[in-house]
Amino acid sequence: MKENKLIKNNEELIKKVIDEYVDLAYEEKQAEEAGKLLLLPPEQYKEKLRAEFMKAAKLDDYRKKMEIAYQKIIDVLPEMVSEEQWILIKQDLGQVAKDFDFEEFFEQETSKEYETLQQVFELSDETILWFYRVGKKLYDEHDYSSATAIFTYLSILDPYVYDFWIALGLSKQNEEDFTGAVEAFLSASIMSNDEPASHFYAAECYLAMKDKEKARLEYNKALHLADKNKTTHEWEPLISGLNEAMT
Fold first, then answer.
1. Cβ contacts of 244 within 8 Å, gap of 6 or more
2. Is-contact 152 66, C-beta < 8 A?
3. DSSP summary character for residue 99
4. Which helix (H) or strand (E) holds 89?
């Protein structure tokens, strides 16, 4: 619980600092444009600045998680593979630049030559699978913060994999980062729109956030897909719990 409180306090601190920066930046802009009309009304201009600062903060968070993931993989993986496998994986890891500027990559035209960062780093599918196994091991050991870092890393390397988003959502859910978990689950639903899991888990998160309306919407989507896939029986315990919580 202490860790979860720290996470929430950190998010509140980031928002507070960003709001202060927005106000200062707006005052500076007013001083620069003294005697002139700003192109946007004050609130719209502040919202534009806030969005820019939030984007920068999120990118910084991504970079930190990538660094944590990289280090965790180096610490944990050698115990899970043979010496020969580790030699091959280390060769793949050598392709990964920890300080890679993925913001610049996604903004430049050359990024269109690639489908994923996995291709840019020339990481094999087997190496990616081992990264996933490291994340699952950490998750099973209840090290949700490290698991979140690993699955964030994987979702950046290849954002088209359903399992990465589900795993990231579950890790965030266990950290009680319910907003982040919902974002991950909804990304999973885009990657595979016929699977009920992402909607069931999103419903749980919305309930944790005391938003029964959105929980009910996700729950209904999940029930429809489970019925369509003839897998409703697999979800009975979760269905029962959600029903009770929504009444």
1. none
2. yes
3. T
4. helix 83-93
Query: Rounded to an integer, what distance in angstroms lies between the CA atom of residue 199 and that of residue 53?
Result: 31
The two three-digit tokens of residue 244, written as one number: 């009770």
126 Rama class: left (phi>0) / alpha (psi -120 to 50) / beta: alpha
- C-alpha span between 54 and 65 (Å, rounded): 16
Superfamily of domain 68-246: Tetratricopeptide repeat domain (1.25.40.10)
| Radius of gyration (C-alpha) of the chain in whole angstroms | 21
Q: Give the model confidence (pLDDT) of 29-85 as tens digits.
A: 554 554 444 455 556 655 655 555 455 556 667 777 878 888 899 999 999 999 999
Helix axes 125-140, 83-93, angle to 10 degrees: 110
Taking the C-alpha atoms of residue 53 and residue 19, their distance in angstroms, rounded to an integer, is 9
Q: Is the CB of residue 172 less than 8 Å from the CB of residue 181?
A: yes
Name the helix (H) or strand (E) containing 127. Answer: helix 125-140
CA angle, residues 54, 55, 59, in degrees to nearest 5: 115
Query: How many CA within 13 A on the CB side of residue 19?
Result: 6
Mean pLDDT of 147-169: 92
- Reported as type and span, the H/E element at residue 220 is helix 212-228
Answer positive or negative: Cα dihedral of 206, 209, 210, 214: negative
Separation of alpha carbons 29 and 56, rounded Å: 19
Domain boundaries, the chain: 68-246
Which residues, 6 or more positions from 185, have their beta carbon under 8 angstroms from its beta carbon?
Answer: 165, 166, 169, 198, 199, 201, 202, 205
